[in-house]
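Could you join me in thinking about how sequence relates to backbone shape in a protein? We need material for that, and I hope you will provide a protein of your own picking. Label the sequence line and the structure token line clearly, so we can match residues to local backbone shapes. Would you write everything just below, so we can both look at the same thing?
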Amino acid sequence: MIKPIVFRNERQCLVGILHVPDDIAYRGKAPGIVMFHGFTGNKIEAHRLFVHVARSLCDSGFIVFRFDFRGSGDSDGDFEDMTLPGEVSDGRRALSLFMRYRYLDRSRVGVLGLSMGGRVAAILASMDARIRFAILYSPALGPLRGRMLSWMPREQIDRLDLGEAVEVSPGWYLKKRFFETVDYIVPSDVMREIKAPILIVHGDRDQVIPVEEVRRYFDSVRDLDSRNELYIVRGGDHTFSKREHTREVINKTLEWLRKVI
């Protein structure tokens, strides 16, 4: 079953969906996962990726919570005011809310993030001992500020300096504060502080985050835990949009979770 959830962070409302196994009252305590969507994404994600993943996890006995960061989806706020520290704050608040659910086994709670949501998940996992495992899909783990600004013409950068919001993707605008804070913590710098096991799933045809970059960052944590794993989806793009790739990602996620839960 699913339940809509509305909660607050920093005086704004966030909207999410809680997935609960139908037989939860008879199961006893169940493991759980909080999902973090990507840049310009939402709790549904491209081609309903997060819906498919959440349903499959729920069918396998997990309680799952997916929600919209402030400024995205149905949540309060405007995307142009989004910052990475704000999303980390939203993620921590969602995790705290999730931890109160009475059927949840608090010793078996993890996070799952896509792209920028993977950045949020990695940062939170490096600082929050409540997180017992981390699953990162196509994660943005390296420095981003210089890369993103390099794509912009000088005229746009000048407008940012004047306090204006500029278009960073069709229909999506951001202000200077985003670029000032996007690297406030760079996951690749803190990943060795993650004590929980990590699964990274990445497509070798990802045109947003090169697979070579993710291989390099994974090498820095490979030896920290025998359960840490980098799984490459052959032919997979940034959101695993082909049906067979979505199924492969879900199957790998469930297989890995059976080893760590």
